[in-house]
Amino acid sequence: MADTPADAESGTEPSLEAQIAAYQREFRDLDPQVEKVVSALQRLNRRMNVAYGRQTATLGISSAEWEVLKALVLAGAPYRLGPGDLAKRLGLTPAAMTHRVDRMAAEGLVTRERDENNRVRVIVELTAEGREKWLEAMRMASVFEEDLLQDLADEERGQLGDMLTRVLRRVEEAQPDADGRLSDLD
Fold it and tell me: Strands 80-81 and 122-126, how do they pair?
């Protein structure tokens, strides 16, 4: 069903079909199949980020804090990284990372201590409470994600995962520096 001018005035997002039709009206060289895929991925990403943000908020952590917890878990036991490594992995400035770690240390999610082997270096380590928050967020996310993909058979899930991974590789090859925030886009 096409959007009416009233839909546009109401502030609701147009359907993908209406968005693509508007794009084609303004830009005739548009490939509607490509635009449908890209627009659907963008909307899915935005909506998933909102859903994950709501879940982490129920745990008393922000999405930004969740990202730090995740980076520490991905580093593996004993779940430790330097603030510079964390900043690089998350695409943050060192100052922004320091602010985030300060807040998380005050909340008991991480500790920050001097490296015993290099007293100049600081180490950020996941606490038991931080790991429990991460695990609870993972439990909530797995329920959400299973529900999200419930209409796809196992084979379709595998195919979709393979296709999206190929697209991701293409983006990563074309934009190798785009894993975090770009300074020109902050």
Answer: antiparallel
Q: Taking CA 150 as the corner, what is the angle to CA 31 and CA 162, rounded to the nearest 5 degrees? A: 50
Q: Is the dihedral of CA 97, 43, 9, 35 positive or negative?
A: positive
Instruction: For the beta carbon of residue 61, count every other beta carbon within 10 angstroms.
Output: 21
Q: Is the dihedral of CA 2, 10, 63, 143 positive or negative?
A: negative
> Are 107 and 54 spatial neighbours (Cβ–Cβ below 8 Å)?
no
pLDDT tens digit string along 122-151?
A: 999 999 999 999 999 999 999 999 999 999
Q: How far apart are CA 121 and CA 105, in angstroms?
A: 17
What is the distance between the alpha carbons of residues 79 and 111, in angstroms, rounded to a whole number?
A: 11
Coil, helix or strand at residue 121: coil
